[in-house]
Write a structure and sequence with these properties.
16 strands, Nucleotidyltransferase, domain 5, 12 helices, globular, Arc Repressor Mutant, subunit A, alpha/beta
């Protein structure tokens, strides 16, 4: 009789073997045994199961170290497909990937700010349908759907508790999507998905402790401590965009006053420009008629072409973002800060300003260096992170 403990140990060993193959890319059974410490017969049995399950394939003979050439193993990337969704205030990005997060198909559509919840959910469903119709034939089909949402989420139950910029409250998004598609669905805060994506596949791969900052229409933070996502006691950690910078100033969409994202987000950058234009400031490139049709890339482009107002607005937002990052570095003492989402498009000027503020104003950085980088995954980081919600579960419990 096989006991529960034996099944658990087998499952753990299977996960170890699968993850070792993933990390190494291509490896022999003998090297698997040496790296994992499992005996050769256990390795052989587990590998045979993983091949039967469709997660591992034999690549062919490798280099001989004396004797027969070993048969090399690698992940079968097309064991199945995964759908990742980055839901933002003004767009939806959907990607279809293999089980190693290689993108097979993607589509982005724009949303009108303030669009109603029902219409947005209908658009998400239509995009999932489109992703499924574009998926190649695989062993296990669609393995799951991950969704990153700009707000406070109950990630265990898949409920969007509050998304101030979307004006959503207590939306059972996981239930809605699972009932429609009969697939496993994972919901998380978009800054958390950004952090997870960077940890598995991006700039955070080699950092044990880092903070990912999603600086877009709003600001969110995903916190990795000792290689794990920090969620806090109720799973709600990371809402640092709503730390108070000025208690007597702007009313925020969350209901508080003076939140950091009111001064350091894409939304605040455009509000800053509008206030300047409405007060009578003249600019060769920016005016009250065109400002609502522009995005951050336009502002960066105008700054490079000589727009004084574009330059001033970028300087203002970069300083304000840097002030909040100094507080974060003082709080968490990370190895690395990663900037993602639309404001990362400011590029070197933003990075240099953040580094300057950390060097001059941050207490802990005098004793411990902290690196600052733009997301290596670009605007795909949160969608890839949403895919990783599924991948991490898959590689923990292969075959389930």
């Amino acid at each position: 009789m096989i006991t529960g403990d034996q099944l658990l140990i087998k499952q753990i060993n299977k996960s170890i073997v699968l993850n070792t193959i993933r990390k190494k890319g291509i490896i022999s059974r003998a090297d698997l045994a040496n790296i994992t410490g499992l005996n050769k017969s256990t390795i052989s049995s587990l590998v045979d199961e993983l091949i039967k399950d469709g997660f591992v394939e034999e690549e062919g003979p490798g280099e001989s170290k004396g004797g027969r050439k070993p048969i090399m193993l690698m992940i079968n990337s097309l064991a199945g497909c995964i759908i990742g969704i980055d839901l933002d205030v003004n767009y939806i990005l959907v990607i279809l990937t293999d089980i190693l997060a290689n993108i097979l198909w993607q589509k982005r559509i724009n949303l009108k700010i303030g669009e109603n919840k029902e219409d947005i959910i209908c658009k998400i469903i239509d995009l999932i349908d489109e992703a499924i119709s574009n998926s190649p034939k695989t062993v296990k089909g669609i393995l799951g759907i991950g969704i990153g949402v700009p707000g406070i989420t109950d990630y265990k139950r898949g409920i969007v508790l509050k998304a101030p910029n979307l004006k959503w409250e207590n939306v059972e998004l996981k239930k809605i999507i699972e009932e429609r598609f009969n697939l496993k669905v994972y919901i998380d805060n978009e800054a958390n998905t950004g952090a997870i994506g960077e940890k598995w596949f991006g700039a955070g791969k080699n950092a044990r402790n880092f903070v990912y900052i999603s600086a877009g229409i709003g600001i969110g933070t995903g916190i990795i401590i000792n290689n794990e996502l920090y969620r806090g006691s109720g799973g709600l950690a990371g809402e640092m965009g709503h730390m108070t910078i000025d208690i007597n100033d702007h009313l925020c969409s969350c209901g508080n006053r003076g939140c950091w994202e009111n001064y350091a987000s894409e939304k605040s950058l455009f509000n800053f420009i509008k206030e300047k234009l409405e007060s009578g400031e003249k600019d060769e490139y920016l005016n009250v008629d065109n400002i609502d049709r522009l995005d951050i890339n336009d502002i960066v482009g105008f700054a490079e072409m000589g727009s004084s107002l574009a330059k001033i607005s970028i300087e203002e937002i970069s300083r304000n973002l840097s002030i909040g990052i100094v507080n974060i570095v003082n709080t968490f003492n990370p190895d690395l800060v990663i900037i993602g989402n639309t404001l990362s498009g400011i590029g070197d000027y933003l990075l240099n300003t953040i580094r300057e503020y950390i060097d001059s104003k941050c207490l802990v950085s005098r004793y411990n260096d902290v690196a600052v980088e733009i997301s290596k995954l670009g605007m795909l980081d949160r969608a890839i992170g949403a895919v990783t919600l599924v991948i991490s579960e898959l590689f923990s419990y292969p075959g389930l």
